[in-house]
Amino acid sequence: MNHFTGSIALLRHPERLENLWLAYWDARRQHFDFVTAERLDDESFRECLDREIAWVFDLRRGKDYIISSQARLHLDLPVESTDEETFYVVEFYIADLYGKASRTMVELNKEVRWLTGDEVLSGQTSEGVPVNPSLVELLNRADVIARHTS
Fold this sequence. Notes:
The structure is a single chain. The protein is of the alpha+beta class and 150 residues long. It has one domain (2-142): Nucleoside Triphosphate Pyrophosphohydrolase (Alpha-Beta Complex). The chain has four helices and eight strands; from the N terminus they run E-E-E-E-H-E-E-E-H-E-H-H. Strand 1 (2-13) and strand 2 (17-26) form a beta hairpin. The longest helix has 13 residues, at 45-57. The protein is globular.
């Protein structure tokens, strides 16, 4: 059994808040994913996510986005995938882009897309492009985002 300890970013759309969520295209795995950060020994759950959001989207820490100070939820649970079972110790954090420059940078990035809650929770975009199955399982079990379609 694999083990993962870390955090997942719930990056909200600036105007549509909890109706659209920012995902990036994982070219190696051929699916959309949320920023997920494995926690290093000396990091908090929030700190590892701060590091990973900056790296994935090429944003400046402390300037281009804000991460909530408290996790929306902490979970300890096993998740089965097509490969094998992974035990997750995970925290979900709301994050928001901050400022026009960061929103513009993200909007111009062709590797990212805003997904509806329904697309994320169903495991595919409206065009049938897959979303990370492990993320889908975690989000459905955690019940941290709603199925908004518009």
